[in-house]
Structures are given as C-alpha cells and as structure tokens.
Amino acid sequence: MIILVVNAGSSSLKYQLIDMSDESVIAKGNCDRIGIDGHINHKTADGRVLDEDCPFPTHTEAFMKLVECLTSGDAKVIDSMDAISAVGHRIVQGADVFDKSVLVTDEVIDKIDELRELAPVHNHAHALALRACKSVIPANVPQVVVFDTAFHQTMPPKAYMFGLPYDDYEKLHVRKYGFHGTSHRFVSKALAEAMGKDVKDLKIVSCHLGNGSSITAVDGGKSVDTSMGFTPLDGVVMGTRTGSVDPSAVTFVADKHGFTPSQMSEYMNKKSGFLGVSGVGSDNRDIQEAANNGNDKAQLVSDMLAYEIQKYIGAYAAAMNGLDAVLFTGGIGENSWEVREQVCQNMDFFGIKIDEALNRTIRGKLTKISTPDSKVEVWIVPTNEELLIARDTLELISK
Ligand code: AMP
C-alpha cells in the first residue's frame, strides 16, 4: 500500500511517497515558489533527480506537476495515481475543533479554513492545498488530515488557560494550543518501544529542538503541558523567535519603536531569538561555532536555550509528579551534542546523568545517552512526522 504525504505551506508543497509495506520512502520532493514563479525538486529512492523551474500560479498546478513527476518521465516511480491508496496532509492548527486525525470532507476543509485566524500563515494555505489536491487526485483516493495541535488536546484547562478574562477564551478562542504534536506523539511512542515499556507507564519530557522548538510533558502517552502556546512563538528561545517574553516588555518595545501589532509580531517571529540576541544568525551550527570561537553573545543565547530547557524539565517533572525519561529530537536535539550536554549538566538533583563521551559521538540515531546509574533515562530519538502522518492515514482508511 502506497501513501502520499503532503505538507503544504503558503508558497510551498513538500511531499513524500511512502510504501507502507516496509515504511520506506519511494520518492520525495518540494514544489516551491507557488504564486511567485515556481520550482520543483523531486528525488527518488534510487537516486534519480528532477530539478526544474515550472510555473505554479496556484497549488493546483503544483499538484499537477507532482502527479506528472510521480507517474511519468525519468524520475517516475508509479504507473498511475491508481497505485496510491490515500493522501495524508499535515495541518498546523486544528484548535479545539480537531483532537485527532480525520478523513477529509468539504466540511472539514471549510472548518480548517475558518480556523485561519488562529494560524494566518498556514491554515488558509492548507485549505487551498486540500481543494487543489481534490481537484487533481482521483476522487476515489481518500484523504486524511493530521493536526499539529491534536496531540495537545489532552492538556487540562489549568495548563491551557491564560490569565486573560474568560470571555477571551470563550469568544476569541485564546488559549494554549501547543504545536509539534505529531513529532511529540511519534517520538514518545518510539521511546517507549526502545525502552521496552508501555508508553502508558512512562512520564517523559520530550524536547523537540529545531528552528522552532517546543518541550512537552507526556504523561502516560498523553500531552499534559507544552511550551508553545496560542502560537508557535511561545516557550524557549528559537532561531528567529523570541520564545516567552513578559507581555509588558512587548507593549513597551512596540511603543518605543512605533510598531503596529503586526510589525511587532514580525519583529518577535523573524528578527529575534538566536539571530536577534547574537547578531550571528538563526542557525544553531553558526551559534555553536561562534560561541566556540569566543563570541560572547552567541554563548549567551546558547546558555539561555539550555537554561530555559532545564527549567521546563524541572517544571514538567513537578507537573507530572515524576520523570522517567528525557528525549531529544529535531534538527538540534538529534544533532547538537553541545546543546544536549549543556541541558544535562547540573541536573543531578533530578537524577539526570549522561555519558558525555558517548553523547559527543552520536548524531541522528536512536540512542540512550544516560549512564547506567542515571535515575532518569536520556535518549536521542529521531523524529519522523511524515511517517506518523502516513500511519494515521493508513489506520483511518483501514477502518
Ligand atoms: P529543524 O527545524 O528540525 O530542521 O532543525 C534545524 C536546526 O537544527 C538548525 O538550527 C540547525 O543548525 C540545527 N542542526 C542541524 N544539523 C545540525 C548539526 N549537525 N549540529 C548542530 N545543529 C544542527
């Protein structure tokens, strides 16, 4: 059984074709610059590549090109779209409307579009892509949507409410939603399997550290709290995002710079974080290199990140009344031994002790990096959101 996984943004459309018999990737690619001009990069598992400019006025043309690449030409992998059993789509914001993956209907697409106010960059693009996909992919191929927020719908009200007037929650739907749920769900389950335990018996702090980062408390397989909030701006300091800031500092800075709310949002989302504090850049590799070469501000932002993560681990151990394992995932979590080492230093109060020599040698591989006498196990768990989307899709269409 073959499943197409789609991750659509406002001007891009990433995809993977996955063979569910062994969960291998048959082909993957990216259509980008949709609405600008258009470009596709398509790669097959056996190394064939197609990389060319082509006009993508809308997502529909991008889907048509994707179908063409999969079914014809030098990088073809299937004879026709009839070989595909279903399509799974990643959706950023499902709010409190969707607490699990669902089959796509016209009503589901409309609802995703209606939620656009809560995720202006993403949800409308998802709706456009879903409609485009329906117009291009044969009608008998079912489609499924998988939400980044769904895993966090198990958070109790005391974790997701803000101290704003209750009306803002009821009428404006302002609350913590949390993001990266697909990743946190995938890695917490993979960790339980690696530990040989049932996820229901584990209290895990899952650290998804990448360009965007979030930390989640997973108690018994359920998200009970998470660091991102109403939007993916909240929580720890990120590549170009501030993370949590005293709201009064936000209004003060906006006032001093004469920013409108949307300019201030842009400032906090695009010009802050690693980039804004260090002046070096938004990429963790550049930050670590600059810090190693004696750049004080790069060192500072690296220290801030590690310190903030440590505080989340402490807070979530308290929230769950226990801690069995901490896991690292995402581009930084899987690859940066420096960040993992810094986070795990001076955490002996919690019973966290890692094998520093081992940690320094591991990159992107499922590995336990804690010492045998560490009370809390520490693991690197590579994430695979596309695979989880494909698995959810398969499960739903099999029902
Ligand atoms: P993601 O958003 O999950 O793709 O992660 C992107 C982040 O991972 C960037 O900040 C990269 O610098 C970081 N990253 C990727 N590879 C490495 C590496 N080998 N060492 C350190 N950081 C890395």
Automatic annotation (TrEMBL):
Catalytic site positions: D148 (proton donor/acceptor)
Recorded GO CC terms: cytoplasm
Annotated site, Transition state stabilizer, chain positions: H180, R241
Cofactor: Mg(2+); Mn(2+)
Enzyme nomenclature, EC number: 2.7.2.1
Localisation: Cytoplasm
Record GO biological process: acetate metabolic process; acetyl-CoA biosynthetic process
Keyword Metal-binding: yes
Pathway in which the depicted protein is active: Metabolic intermediate biosynthesis; acetyl-CoA biosynthesis; acetyl-CoA from acetate: step 1/2
Residues annotated to bind substrate: R90
Origin superkingdom: Bacteria
Top EC group: transferase
Free-text remark on how the cofactor is bound: Mg(2+). Can also accept Mn(2+).
Reaction(s) the record says it catalyses: acetate + ATP = acetyl phosphate + ADP
Database matches in Pfam families: Acetate_kinase
MF terms in GO: acetate kinase activity; ATP binding; magnesium ion binding
Keywords noted in UniProt: ATP-binding, Cytoplasm, Kinase, Magnesium, Metal-binding, Nucleotide-binding, Transferase
Protein residues bound to ATP: K14, H208, L209, G210, N211, G212, D283, N284, R285, G331, I332, G333, E334, N335
Cross-referenced InterPro entries: Ac/propionate_kinase, Aliphatic_acid_kin_short-chain, Aliphatic_acid_kinase_CS, ATPase_NBD
Quaternary structure and partners: Homodimer.
Membership in a protein family: Belongs to the acetokinase family.
Record's protein name: Acetate kinase
Organism: Ruminococcus flavefaciens 007c
Gene: ackA
